[in-house]
Amino acid sequence: MKARQQRMLAVGLAVLGLAIAAALTLRAFRDNMMFFVSVSEVVAGDYPHERKFRVGGLVVDGSVQRADGSLDVHFLVTDMRCEIPVTYTGVLPDLFREGQGVVAHGIMQQDVFVADEVLAKHDENYMAPEVAESMAQHVEENTAALRENGAECTS
Amino acid sequence: MWTFLHKLASPPHFFSYAKGLIPWFAWPGYALLIYGSFAGLFLAPMDYQQKDAYRIIYLHVPAAYLSMMAYVIMAVAGGIGLIWRMKLAHAVAASAAPIGASFTFLALATGSIWGRPMWGTWWEWGDPRLMSELILLFLYIGYMALRGAIDDTAKADKASAVLALVGAVNIPVIHFSVEWWSSLHQGPTLVRAGGPAMDTSMLYPLLAMILGATLVFVSLLLRRVRSEVLQREQRTRWVKALVLSPKGGR
Predict the structure, then answer these.
(1) Contact A128 B201 (CB under 8 A)
(2) Alpha-carbon distance A93 to nearest alpha carbon in chain B (angstroms)
(3) pTM
(4) Does B173 contact A at CB distance below 8 Å?
(5) What is the value of ipTM here, to two decimals?
(6) CA separation (Å) from B197 to A2, A31, B202, B218, B239?
(7) Are B174 and B191 within 8 A, CB to CB?
(8) Fewer CB under 10 Å: which end of chain A, C or N?
């Protein structure tokens, strides 16, 4: 084997080995790499107890209740299978509204998620307002279908 | 074939033909950037959710894409330099690092400015996309620091090429971070099954910005590699002849 081929083999094997090592490490830390847990996992009790964590999902349509004279807000978060109630006191991001993806940071207290921070999660779709209006109908139908087809929430 | 490639990669040859190549990348690149900025800021409609705030993607997406592209170029050039002992490849790798670091910083900064009004936060520790992009910035800084710390150019080339190759593991992690793990960052809009999830009136200016930024990046890279080559070859006969020639190397 020529010296150049030896170097090629050495570099190739080193890169391959590193890639495998990285993949294994990331797999091992899979749960810790998650920025938030899903609503179903929370309902199933699969979340860090006695510690703050993040939960992500969609704000359920018609569930947002604001208290008069304070910044208290209550709403339900869903992943189309399960729902959990969330309470929060503070200013919500501009994108926050019903049907919007959110990531809330806080702690579970007797089946209620008490959030100290609520972030809006944007989706990957970009469209003009007129297009969005005509598509809104479509999306509502899809959401309804998803709910009907979706598996039952099991706790 | 091989002699042709050898000729292309020889520093004096590169130095002369790269000069002619630069305008062919730079001018179309700047023209596309001007068109893309104008169309993106004034002609494209606003987004149904984000209103006008989404327009930062015309800067953010090209910056983020080039931050990774520059790293891939740096790592591949480093690998070629290691295997074939090609001087020009190491010069390319060394030149790509500061440009890539600048694009990484720009991607992080524009993302942060956008994140404050949209997500409700400037920065979230622990988010996989944000973290992997920050690690990319640290890799660039570490790469440049390592180069700066070793006086002997050949040794610096080898050590930094190894670092670049090791860090290349991060590139797929950045790209797939929003798919493998849950992240605040949205999924890919352009590179996805079923085509881009974006109105064409918004998409074309974005593609123009991406292509324009890439062309400008190539022209900047060629410029930097030329001066890098000149510095590395300062004791050779062709550089001396160039400097002493009537035009003084210009």
Answers:
(1) yes
(2) 5
(3) 0.89
(4) yes
(5) 0.81
(6) 50, 29, 10, 28, 52
(7) no
(8) N
